Amino acid sequence: MPLLNKLGTAAPRPTAPDLRRLRVALTVFFALDGFVFAGWVVRIPAIKERTGASASQLGLALLAVSAGAVITMTLTGQLCRRYGSLPVTVACGVLLPLSVALPSLADSVLVLSLVLLVFGAAYGGISVAMNSAAVDLVSALRRPVMPSFHAAFSLGGMLGAGLGGLVAGHLSPTPHLLGITVLGLTVTAVTAPALLRRGAADLLRAHAPARPQSPSHPAGRRMDRRTRGLVLVFGLIALCTAYGEGAIADWGPLHLEQDLHAHPGVAAAAYSCFAFAMTIGRLSGTTLLERLGRTRTVVGGGATACAGMLLGALAPSTGLALAGFAVTGLGLANIFPVAVERAGALAGPSGVAAASTLGYGGMLLGPPLIGFMADWYSLPTAQTSVAVLAGAAACIGFATRRTERAESKDRMETRDRAEHTAHVERKESTETV
Fold it and tell me: Are the C-beta atoms of residues 104 and 47 closer than 8 Å to each other?
Protein backbone atom coordinates (compact mmCIF):
# COMPACT_ATOMS: atom_id res chain seq x y z
CA MET A 1 0.00 0.00 0.00
CA PRO A 2 2.76 2.52 0.74
CA LEU A 3 4.23 1.68 -2.67
CA LEU A 4 0.89 2.38 -4.31
CA ASN A 5 0.68 5.74 -2.57
CA LYS A 6 4.14 6.72 -3.73
CA LEU A 7 3.48 5.70 -7.30
CA GLY A 8 0.04 7.25 -7.39
CA THR A 9 1.11 10.65 -6.07
CA ALA A 10 2.55 13.34 -8.31
CA ALA A 11 6.18 14.06 -7.58
CA PRO A 12 6.59 17.28 -5.63
CA ARG A 13 8.40 20.19 -7.23
CA PRO A 14 11.91 20.19 -5.74
CA THR A 15 12.06 23.99 -5.48
CA ALA A 16 13.56 24.84 -2.13
CA PRO A 17 17.34 24.98 -1.72
CA ASP A 18 18.56 25.43 -5.29
CA LEU A 19 15.96 27.96 -6.33
CA ARG A 20 16.47 29.87 -3.07
CA ARG A 21 20.20 30.08 -3.74
CA LEU A 22 19.55 31.36 -7.24
CA ARG A 23 17.07 33.91 -5.92
CA VAL A 24 19.52 35.23 -3.31
CA ALA A 25 22.37 35.47 -5.82
CA LEU A 26 20.24 37.23 -8.40
CA THR A 27 18.95 39.61 -5.73
CA VAL A 28 22.55 40.55 -4.90
CA PHE A 29 23.21 41.43 -8.55
CA PHE A 30 20.14 43.67 -8.62
CA ALA A 31 21.38 45.42 -5.45
CA LEU A 32 24.85 45.80 -6.95
CA ASP A 33 23.39 47.39 -10.07
CA GLY A 34 21.47 49.95 -8.01
CA PHE A 35 24.46 50.67 -5.78
CA VAL A 36 26.83 51.32 -8.68
CA PHE A 37 24.30 53.45 -10.57
CA ALA A 38 23.57 55.59 -7.49
CA GLY A 39 27.27 56.02 -6.83
CA TRP A 40 27.57 57.62 -10.24
CA VAL A 41 24.50 59.84 -10.11
CA VAL A 42 25.26 61.48 -6.76
CA ARG A 43 28.60 62.65 -8.15
CA ILE A 44 27.10 64.25 -11.25
CA PRO A 45 27.15 67.80 -9.80
CA ALA A 46 30.87 67.50 -8.97
CA ILE A 47 31.71 65.99 -12.37
CA LYS A 48 29.63 68.70 -14.08
CA GLU A 49 31.66 71.35 -12.26
CA ARG A 50 34.95 69.64 -13.08
CA THR A 51 34.23 69.47 -16.81
CA GLY A 52 32.62 72.94 -16.93
CA ALA A 53 29.55 71.56 -18.70
CA SER A 54 26.35 73.57 -19.08
CA ALA A 55 22.95 71.97 -18.53
CA SER A 56 22.60 71.27 -22.27
CA GLN A 57 26.13 69.90 -22.56
CA LEU A 58 25.57 67.65 -19.58
CA GLY A 59 22.33 66.51 -21.20
CA LEU A 60 24.24 65.56 -24.36
CA ALA A 61 26.83 63.69 -22.30
CA LEU A 62 24.07 61.78 -20.52
CA LEU A 63 22.61 60.98 -23.93
CA ALA A 64 25.75 58.91 -24.52
CA VAL A 65 24.69 56.69 -21.62
CA SER A 66 21.37 56.18 -23.37
CA ALA A 67 22.98 55.40 -26.70
CA GLY A 68 25.35 52.82 -25.24
CA ALA A 69 22.61 51.21 -23.19
CA VAL A 70 20.03 50.92 -25.97
CA ILE A 71 22.52 49.39 -28.40
CA THR A 72 23.75 46.91 -25.81
CA MET A 73 20.25 45.99 -24.66
CA THR A 74 19.36 44.71 -28.10
CA LEU A 75 22.57 42.69 -28.31
CA THR A 76 22.17 41.40 -24.75
CA GLY A 77 18.75 39.99 -25.54
CA GLN A 78 20.32 37.94 -28.32
CA LEU A 79 23.20 36.83 -26.09
CA CYS A 80 20.75 35.72 -23.40
CA ARG A 81 18.85 33.60 -25.90
CA ARG A 82 22.07 32.04 -27.16
CA TYR A 83 24.16 31.57 -24.00
CA GLY A 84 21.58 31.96 -21.22
CA SER A 85 20.78 34.92 -19.02
CA LEU A 86 22.79 33.74 -15.99
CA PRO A 87 26.32 33.79 -17.49
CA VAL A 88 25.55 37.05 -19.31
CA THR A 89 24.50 38.58 -15.97
CA VAL A 90 27.84 37.61 -14.44
CA ALA A 91 29.83 39.01 -17.36
CA CYS A 92 28.02 42.33 -17.13
CA GLY A 93 28.50 42.25 -13.35
CA VAL A 94 32.23 42.53 -14.06
CA LEU A 95 31.97 45.24 -16.73
CA LEU A 96 29.67 47.58 -14.79
CA PRO A 97 31.95 48.21 -11.77
CA LEU A 98 34.94 48.61 -14.09
CA SER A 99 33.19 51.28 -16.14
CA VAL A 100 31.75 53.38 -13.28
CA ALA A 101 35.15 54.86 -12.39
CA LEU A 102 35.70 56.25 -15.89
CA PRO A 103 33.51 59.41 -15.65
CA SER A 104 35.55 60.72 -12.71
CA LEU A 105 38.65 60.73 -14.93
CA ALA A 106 37.09 62.91 -17.65
CA ASP A 107 38.37 66.49 -17.97
CA SER A 108 36.13 67.66 -20.80
CA VAL A 109 32.57 67.19 -22.05
CA LEU A 110 33.78 65.17 -25.05
CA VAL A 111 35.78 62.72 -22.94
CA LEU A 112 32.88 62.48 -20.49
CA SER A 113 30.53 61.57 -23.33
CA LEU A 114 32.86 58.82 -24.56
CA VAL A 115 33.32 57.18 -21.17
CA LEU A 116 29.59 57.45 -20.44
CA LEU A 117 28.99 55.54 -23.67
CA VAL A 118 30.99 52.65 -22.16
CA PHE A 119 29.22 52.96 -18.81
CA GLY A 120 25.83 52.98 -20.54
CA ALA A 121 26.73 49.85 -22.49
CA ALA A 122 27.58 47.96 -19.30
CA TYR A 123 24.52 49.25 -17.48
CA GLY A 124 22.17 48.35 -20.31
CA GLY A 125 23.65 44.87 -20.59
CA ILE A 126 23.24 43.92 -16.96
CA SER A 127 19.73 45.39 -16.87
CA VAL A 128 18.41 43.13 -19.62
CA ALA A 129 20.33 40.05 -18.46
CA MET A 130 19.15 40.35 -14.85
CA ASN A 131 15.53 40.91 -15.78
CA SER A 132 15.55 37.96 -18.18
CA ALA A 133 16.92 35.71 -15.44
CA ALA A 134 14.41 37.14 -12.95
CA VAL A 135 11.43 36.43 -15.20
CA ASP A 136 12.58 32.81 -15.57
CA LEU A 137 12.94 32.49 -11.81
CA VAL A 138 9.52 34.06 -11.16
CA SER A 139 8.04 31.50 -13.55
CA ALA A 140 9.81 28.69 -11.72
CA LEU A 141 8.69 29.89 -8.29
CA ARG A 142 5.13 30.53 -9.58
CA ARG A 143 4.67 33.58 -7.34
CA PRO A 144 4.66 37.30 -8.32
CA VAL A 145 8.02 38.02 -6.66
CA MET A 146 9.39 40.25 -9.43
CA PRO A 147 9.06 43.40 -7.25
CA SER A 148 11.43 41.87 -4.69
CA PHE A 149 14.29 41.88 -7.20
CA HIS A 150 13.62 45.49 -8.06
CA ALA A 151 13.38 46.24 -4.34
CA ALA A 152 17.00 45.05 -4.11
CA PHE A 153 17.92 47.45 -6.92
CA SER A 154 16.24 50.30 -5.04
CA LEU A 155 17.89 49.29 -1.77
CA GLY A 156 21.26 49.25 -3.47
CA GLY A 157 20.49 52.67 -4.94
CA MET A 158 19.51 54.01 -1.54
CA LEU A 159 22.72 52.72 0.05
CA GLY A 160 24.83 54.02 -2.83
CA ALA A 161 23.22 57.45 -2.66
CA GLY A 162 23.49 57.54 1.13
CA LEU A 163 27.17 56.68 0.98
CA GLY A 164 27.67 59.27 -1.74
CA GLY A 165 26.01 61.92 0.41
CA LEU A 166 28.31 61.08 3.32
CA VAL A 167 31.53 61.27 1.29
CA ALA A 168 30.54 64.10 -1.10
CA GLY A 169 32.05 66.77 1.11
CA HIS A 170 35.21 64.81 1.91
CA LEU A 171 36.24 62.83 -1.18
CA SER A 172 36.57 63.80 -4.81
CA PRO A 173 34.66 61.64 -7.34
CA THR A 174 37.79 59.69 -8.36
CA PRO A 175 38.58 57.81 -5.11
CA HIS A 176 34.85 57.40 -4.40
CA LEU A 177 34.08 55.73 -7.72
CA LEU A 178 37.28 53.67 -7.67
CA GLY A 179 36.19 52.34 -4.29
CA ILE A 180 32.86 51.34 -5.83
CA THR A 181 34.77 49.52 -8.57
CA VAL A 182 36.72 47.44 -6.06
CA LEU A 183 33.60 46.68 -4.01
CA GLY A 184 31.57 45.76 -7.09
CA LEU A 185 34.19 43.35 -8.42
CA THR A 186 34.46 41.71 -5.01
CA VAL A 187 30.68 41.20 -4.76
CA THR A 188 30.58 39.75 -8.28
CA ALA A 189 33.41 37.33 -7.52
CA VAL A 190 31.66 36.07 -4.39
CA THR A 191 28.18 35.78 -5.91
CA ALA A 192 28.93 34.56 -9.44
CA PRO A 193 29.50 30.86 -8.57
CA ALA A 194 25.86 30.48 -7.53
CA LEU A 195 24.73 31.55 -11.02
CA LEU A 196 27.44 29.70 -12.93
CA ARG A 197 27.20 26.41 -11.06
CA ARG A 198 26.49 23.45 -13.28
CA GLY A 199 22.81 22.90 -13.93
CA ALA A 200 21.57 26.30 -12.69
CA ALA A 201 20.07 27.24 -16.06
CA ASP A 202 18.58 23.75 -16.47
CA LEU A 203 17.03 24.10 -13.03
CA LEU A 204 15.07 27.19 -14.09
CA ARG A 205 13.86 25.54 -17.26
CA ALA A 206 12.86 22.36 -15.44
CA HIS A 207 10.79 24.18 -12.82
CA ALA A 208 9.17 26.73 -15.11
CA PRO A 209 5.63 25.87 -16.21
CA ALA A 210 5.29 25.17 -19.91
CA ARG A 211 3.94 28.05 -21.95
CA PRO A 212 0.82 27.30 -23.91
CA GLN A 213 1.46 26.99 -27.62
CA SER A 214 -0.78 27.68 -30.53
CA PRO A 215 -0.44 27.24 -34.28
CA SER A 216 -0.12 31.00 -34.69
CA HIS A 217 2.58 31.34 -32.04
CA PRO A 218 4.58 28.17 -31.58
CA ALA A 219 7.58 28.05 -29.32
CA GLY A 220 10.80 29.36 -30.76
CA ARG A 221 9.26 31.53 -33.46
CA ARG A 222 8.75 35.25 -33.63
CA MET A 223 5.98 36.95 -31.73
CA ASP A 224 2.75 37.37 -33.64
CA ARG A 225 1.36 40.84 -34.26
CA ARG A 226 -0.97 40.92 -31.25
CA THR A 227 1.70 39.69 -28.85
CA ARG A 228 4.23 42.15 -30.24
CA GLY A 229 1.74 44.97 -29.79
CA LEU A 230 1.05 44.01 -26.17
CA VAL A 231 4.77 43.75 -25.42
CA LEU A 232 5.26 47.25 -26.84
CA VAL A 233 2.40 48.55 -24.69
CA PHE A 234 3.98 47.11 -21.55
CA GLY A 235 7.31 48.50 -22.68
CA LEU A 236 5.68 51.92 -23.00
CA ILE A 237 4.38 51.66 -19.43
CA ALA A 238 7.90 50.79 -18.31
CA LEU A 239 9.30 53.72 -20.25
CA CYS A 240 6.88 56.21 -18.67
CA THR A 241 7.84 55.15 -15.17
CA ALA A 242 11.58 54.58 -15.68
CA TYR A 243 11.78 58.07 -17.18
CA GLY A 244 10.93 59.40 -13.73
CA GLU A 245 13.55 57.26 -12.00
CA GLY A 246 16.29 58.45 -14.33
CA ALA A 247 15.18 62.09 -14.05
CA ILE A 248 15.18 62.12 -10.24
CA ALA A 249 18.47 60.23 -10.08
CA ASP A 250 20.34 62.63 -12.35
CA TRP A 251 18.58 65.94 -11.76
CA GLY A 252 17.03 65.65 -8.28
CA PRO A 253 20.26 66.50 -6.39
CA LEU A 254 21.02 69.34 -8.80
CA HIS A 255 17.48 70.74 -8.38
CA LEU A 256 17.84 70.86 -4.59
CA GLU A 257 21.33 72.35 -4.73
CA GLN A 258 20.74 74.84 -7.54
CA ASP A 259 17.10 75.91 -7.14
CA LEU A 260 16.50 75.40 -3.41
CA HIS A 261 20.10 76.16 -2.30
CA ALA A 262 20.46 72.96 -0.26
CA HIS A 263 23.82 71.75 1.07
CA PRO A 264 25.51 69.21 -1.26
CA GLY A 265 25.10 66.47 1.35
CA VAL A 266 21.38 67.26 1.70
CA ALA A 267 20.99 67.49 -2.07
CA ALA A 268 22.41 63.99 -2.45
CA ALA A 269 19.53 62.80 -0.24
CA ALA A 270 17.06 63.46 -3.08
CA TYR A 271 17.73 60.15 -4.77
CA SER A 272 18.22 58.44 -1.42
CA CYS A 273 14.69 59.42 -0.28
CA PHE A 274 13.28 58.35 -3.63
CA ALA A 275 15.12 55.01 -3.55
CA PHE A 276 14.13 54.34 0.07
CA ALA A 277 10.42 54.87 -0.65
CA MET A 278 10.68 52.76 -3.79
CA THR A 279 12.34 49.99 -1.79
CA ILE A 280 9.51 49.99 0.75
CA GLY A 281 6.94 49.92 -2.06
CA ARG A 282 8.64 47.03 -3.82
CA LEU A 283 9.12 45.00 -0.65
CA SER A 284 5.34 45.06 -0.30
CA GLY A 285 4.83 44.57 -4.04
CA THR A 286 4.15 40.83 -3.95
CA THR A 287 1.42 41.33 -1.34
CA LEU A 288 -0.12 44.19 -3.33
CA LEU A 289 -0.16 42.16 -6.53
CA GLU A 290 -1.72 39.15 -4.83
CA ARG A 291 -4.44 41.28 -3.23
CA LEU A 292 -5.10 44.06 -5.76
CA GLY A 293 -4.00 42.55 -9.06
CA ARG A 294 -1.76 44.11 -11.66
CA THR A 295 -4.16 46.69 -13.07
CA ARG A 296 -5.05 48.33 -9.76
CA THR A 297 -1.42 48.31 -8.70
CA VAL A 298 -0.34 50.08 -11.89
CA VAL A 299 -3.19 52.61 -11.95
CA GLY A 300 -2.90 53.49 -8.26
CA GLY A 301 0.87 53.71 -8.46
CA GLY A 302 0.82 55.99 -11.50
CA ALA A 303 -1.66 58.37 -9.89
CA THR A 304 0.36 58.50 -6.67
CA ALA A 305 3.59 59.18 -8.54
CA CYS A 306 1.95 61.96 -10.56
CA ALA A 307 0.89 63.80 -7.39
CA GLY A 308 4.23 63.20 -5.67
CA MET A 309 6.32 64.52 -8.55
CA LEU A 310 4.29 67.71 -8.85
CA LEU A 311 5.12 68.33 -5.19
CA GLY A 312 8.78 67.41 -5.63
CA ALA A 313 9.29 69.66 -8.64
CA LEU A 314 7.30 72.71 -7.53
CA ALA A 315 7.75 72.72 -3.74
CA PRO A 316 9.26 75.95 -2.34
CA SER A 317 11.35 74.22 0.34
CA THR A 318 13.84 71.36 0.52
CA GLY A 319 11.78 69.35 3.01
CA LEU A 320 8.64 69.38 0.85
CA ALA A 321 10.66 68.52 -2.25
CA LEU A 322 12.21 65.52 -0.51
CA ALA A 323 8.73 64.42 0.61
CA GLY A 324 7.52 64.72 -2.99
CA PHE A 325 10.41 62.58 -4.25
CA ALA A 326 9.57 59.95 -1.62
CA VAL A 327 5.88 59.83 -2.64
CA THR A 328 6.96 59.54 -6.27
CA GLY A 329 9.18 56.56 -5.44
CA LEU A 330 6.33 54.89 -3.56
CA GLY A 331 4.02 55.31 -6.56
CA LEU A 332 6.47 54.16 -9.23
CA ALA A 333 7.73 51.23 -7.15
CA ASN A 334 5.90 48.30 -8.73
CA ILE A 335 4.92 49.59 -12.18
CA PHE A 336 8.18 48.76 -13.94
CA PRO A 337 8.49 45.22 -12.49
CA VAL A 338 4.87 44.46 -13.43
CA ALA A 339 5.36 45.72 -16.99
CA VAL A 340 8.53 43.66 -17.55
CA GLU A 341 7.04 40.54 -15.96
CA ARG A 342 3.90 40.76 -18.11
CA ALA A 343 5.98 41.17 -21.25
CA GLY A 344 8.08 38.16 -20.27
CA ALA A 345 4.99 36.07 -19.52
CA LEU A 346 3.68 36.84 -23.00
CA ALA A 347 6.82 36.37 -25.08
CA GLY A 348 9.62 34.94 -22.95
CA PRO A 349 13.15 36.40 -23.28
CA SER A 350 12.18 38.34 -26.41
CA GLY A 351 9.43 40.11 -24.50
CA VAL A 352 11.73 40.87 -21.58
CA ALA A 353 14.39 42.29 -23.91
CA ALA A 354 11.88 44.49 -25.76
CA ALA A 355 10.16 45.83 -22.64
CA SER A 356 13.45 46.30 -20.78
CA THR A 357 14.94 48.17 -23.72
CA LEU A 358 12.01 50.57 -23.82
CA GLY A 359 11.89 50.86 -20.04
CA TYR A 360 15.55 51.47 -19.41
CA GLY A 361 15.66 53.58 -22.54
CA GLY A 362 13.17 55.84 -20.76
CA MET A 363 15.38 55.91 -17.67
CA LEU A 364 18.39 56.91 -19.72
CA LEU A 365 16.68 59.23 -22.20
CA GLY A 366 14.85 61.11 -19.44
CA PRO A 367 17.91 62.93 -18.02
CA PRO A 368 19.08 64.49 -21.32
CA LEU A 369 15.52 65.54 -22.16
CA ILE A 370 15.23 67.13 -18.72
CA GLY A 371 18.49 68.97 -19.46
CA PHE A 372 17.17 70.42 -22.70
CA MET A 373 13.87 71.45 -21.14
CA ALA A 374 15.75 72.99 -18.18
CA ASP A 375 17.62 75.27 -20.59
CA TRP A 376 14.44 76.15 -22.48
CA TYR A 377 12.27 76.75 -19.41
CA SER A 378 13.56 75.89 -15.93
CA LEU A 379 14.59 72.73 -14.09
CA PRO A 380 11.45 72.61 -11.87
CA THR A 381 9.22 72.97 -14.93
CA ALA A 382 11.18 70.30 -16.78
CA GLN A 383 10.74 67.86 -13.89
CA THR A 384 6.94 68.12 -14.10
CA SER A 385 7.23 65.99 -17.24
CA VAL A 386 7.80 63.06 -14.86
CA ALA A 387 4.31 63.64 -13.42
CA VAL A 388 2.81 63.76 -16.90
CA LEU A 389 4.31 60.41 -17.91
CA ALA A 390 3.38 58.78 -14.59
CA GLY A 391 -0.22 59.77 -15.25
CA ALA A 392 0.09 58.40 -18.78
CA ALA A 393 1.29 55.06 -17.40
CA ALA A 394 -1.76 54.89 -15.13
CA CYS A 395 -4.07 55.56 -18.08
CA ILE A 396 -2.38 52.92 -20.25
CA GLY A 397 -2.55 50.42 -17.41
CA PHE A 398 -6.28 51.02 -17.05
CA ALA A 399 -6.79 50.73 -20.82
CA THR A 400 -5.09 47.31 -20.87
CA ARG A 401 -7.06 45.89 -17.92
CA ARG A 402 -8.76 43.35 -20.19
CA THR A 403 -5.41 41.77 -20.99
CA GLU A 404 -4.92 40.87 -17.36
CA ARG A 405 -8.27 39.08 -17.35
CA ALA A 406 -7.35 37.21 -20.52
CA GLU A 407 -3.95 36.21 -19.08
CA SER A 408 -5.64 35.06 -15.87
CA LYS A 409 -8.05 32.94 -17.91
CA ASP A 410 -5.16 31.43 -19.90
CA ARG A 411 -3.28 30.62 -16.69
CA MET A 412 -6.35 28.92 -15.23
CA GLU A 413 -6.86 26.89 -18.40
CA THR A 414 -3.18 25.91 -18.44
CA ARG A 415 -3.35 24.92 -14.77
CA ASP A 416 -6.51 22.87 -15.37
CA ARG A 417 -4.86 21.06 -18.28
CA ALA A 418 -1.79 20.35 -16.15
CA GLU A 419 -3.91 19.03 -13.30
CA HIS A 420 -5.92 16.86 -15.68
CA THR A 421 -2.70 15.46 -17.20
CA ALA A 422 -1.28 14.76 -13.73
CA HIS A 423 -4.52 13.02 -12.73
CA VAL A 424 -4.43 10.81 -15.82
CA GLU A 425 -0.77 9.93 -15.19
CA ARG A 426 -1.49 9.05 -11.56
CA LYS A 427 -4.44 6.88 -12.63
CA GLU A 428 -2.33 5.08 -15.23
CA SER A 429 0.46 4.51 -12.69
CA THR A 430 -2.00 3.05 -10.18
CA GLU A 431 -3.55 0.78 -12.80
CA THR A 432 -0.12 -0.40 -13.91
CA VAL A 433 0.81 -1.32 -10.36
Answer: yes
